[in-house]
Amino acid sequence: MTTRETPAPGGRRGVPVAPDPLPIAVVDNHTHLDIARDGEAAPDVAHAIAAATAVGVDRLVQIGCDLPGARFTVEMVERHPAMLGGVALHPNEVPRLAETGGLQDAYDEIERLAAHPRVRVIGETGLDYYRTGPDGVGAQQESFRWHIDLAKRTGKALQIHDRDAHDDVLGILAQEGAPEKTVLHCFSGDLAMARECAERGFYLSFAGTVTFKNARGLRDALSVTPLERVLVETDAPYLTPAPWRGATNAPYLVPLTVRAMAGVLGVAVPTLCQAVSDTSEAVYGPW
Ligand SMILES: [Zn+2]
Question: Is the pLDDT of residue 244 over 90?
Fold first, then answer.
């Protein structure tokens, strides 16, 4: 934890100060404005968008990864032109639904919500061997295959959650055939995996983790990722970039991650901003 004690102007202790605006607007490719951290109120969506826009993060992709989150996402994308949506059942949610017998109904509803024209992402889906034990692996893998198929049937982008499951994620994508637009959200692999993903035509979305002091391996991975495969995200309210690690994350903090990434890639900040913006449109379509 390196949360600064500096108060934001007019704000409460521990709330990160807004960074300097980016020279060219970018997209936060993955955020959860439906999720409140323990003991905190849920973010005000209009306020979160306004704060992000003020620092050059003018559009975002809201990800709903359980049924309430997916319903919220569809409601919000109808209300906010800056926002696109993604819907799915998170790999940690699936074993629970399978156990209570609610999985098929949940799939049916996700598929209905995914048909919305401003829902352009199926995700986040994938595998999480960190939070879910061996008992849940079968359900997770089956669900991952279902979401891959849904992305292909609907022609939408796939966003993948991969925690401690690199080999199986890549293996299942190879078996099933990856959707045309496949994004590894919060990329956490090493240099070799980054090369392999880029070769397979996947997109790598980097979060605040790339700014963490101990994340040299991740920065190495970013350094070999072709510029046209790079995306950026918050995964808010989690993974707040340095120097605010441990505080609550929000889309207006993306500039901190972008500037750190430009340094790793050895490109000028405006160059990276333009690339991220263009790539986001290429993956999700214009909005
Ligand atoms: Zn997420």
Answer: yes
